[in-house]
Design a protein that fits this description.
This protein is of the alpha+beta class. Helices cover 24% and strands 34% of the residues. It contains four helices and five strands, in the order E-H-H-H-H-E-E-E-E. The protein starts with 13 loop residues before the first strand and ends with a strand. The relative contact order is 0.25.
């Protein structure tokens, strides 16, 4: 399975991936990453924060961007080179978030693609914005 090559990619092309973030996802991410911040795993602590309850790890939400890049655009064989992120709003348990990546720039001679990345929740609220640079498969 090979993704799109640099010649098959066009500016403006986009792809998306959606997932409902569950309590299990958050605990598994905490275990894998080692990030046991009580804002994510301790309801008694989290209900006294500005969020009034547990929230998902920002990087868990951002990982859906990686899914789009690795599986769709450009797809399998893509090499992640750079990612800038801005966390705009919390992702709560049972939110359905959608990561969308849109080709902003293509540098064919260097086999590089720059993509605008946005993650929104089920209400259309942007929770993460950023920009990625990848190397497309050959």
């Amino acid at each position: 399975m090979i993704g799109l090559t640099i010649d098959q990619i066009t500016v403006g092309q986009s792809a998306s991936f959606a997932k409902t973030i569950t309590e299990t996802d958050v605990y598994m991410f905490a275990g894998i990453s080692g990030d046991l911040n009580p804002a994510h795993v301790n309801e008694e602590y989290a209900k006294n924060t500005i969020f009034k309850g547990r929230i998902a790890h920002g990087m868990l939400g951002a990982s859906l961007i990686s899914t789009v890049l690795a599986m769709q655009l450009p797809g399998p064989g893509t090499i992640y080179l750079k990612q800038d992120l801005k966390f705009l709003a919390p992702v709560r348990f049972n939110d359905t978030i959608t990561a969308t990546c849109t080709v902003k720039e293509k540098v064919a001679e260097k086999n590089r693609v720059v993509l605008e990345c946005t993650v929104t929740n089920q209400d259309g609220v942007a929770v993460i914005n950023g920009e990625a640079m990848v190397m497309a498969p050959k």
